[in-house]
Write a structure and sequence with these properties.
The chain has 143 residues and is of the alpha+beta class. It folds into two domains: 2-101, no CATH class; 104-143, no CATH class. It has helices at 2-15, 17-31, 42-59, 61-75, and strands at residues 79-84, 94-99, 111-115, 118-121, 124-127, 132-135. A four-stranded antiparallel β-sheet has the order 3-4-5-6, with no helix packed on it. A two-stranded antiparallel sheet has the order 1-2. The model has no long low-confidence stretch (mean pLDDT 91).
């Protein structure tokens, strides 16, 4: 079901310039140039805010957040995994790896019971109340 809806939505965005403009404007206006820190402690604010801005530029945070915003608007979902990136030219090695919605899928079937109080539904393990517990993510894009 997710696949069919996602493909239809992507088709509409790709073939409707008004819809493409709406999705792009929403992403640009929501994320802008990226999140900014504003600390109350003025003594520490300058150093921390400068370090944050440096890290955000190094990882391309604003670009990644805009991509996720577009995916959320079109696909109905967006995924990112926090990773340690030893090649990052910054003291903080935290990075985000964006994951296509197609990579979040069950390896065997669309639905299966995984325990007495949980179920695996198209790559997402849900508890008895429908809250996500874990995600099955393929290492490579399936297409």
């Amino acid at each position: 079901m997710r696949l069919a809806l996602r493909n239809r939505a992507r088709y509409e965005v790709a073939n409707n310039s008004f819809l493409y403009g709406i999705v792009s404007t929403l992403a640009n206006d929501t994320v802008g140039t990226g999140p900014r820190l504003q600390l109350l402690d003025k003594a520490k604010a300058s150093d921390v805010e400068r370090s944050w801005e440096s890290w955000a530029r190094k990882v391309g945070l604003a670009r990644k957040l805009r991509t996720m915003s577009r995916a959320w608007s079109v696909d109905g979902e967006a995924f990112a995994i926090k990773i340690d990136n030893p090649n990052l030219d910054h003291v903080v090695k935290l990075d985000l790896r964006l994951v296509e919605a197609e990579q979040v899928a069950s390896p065997l079937s669309a639905f299966s019971l995984t325990g007495p109080n949980s179920a695996l539904l198209d790559g997402i393990t849900l508890d008895a109340y429908g809250n996500p517990l874990s995600y099955s993510v393929a290492r490579e894009h399936p297409g």
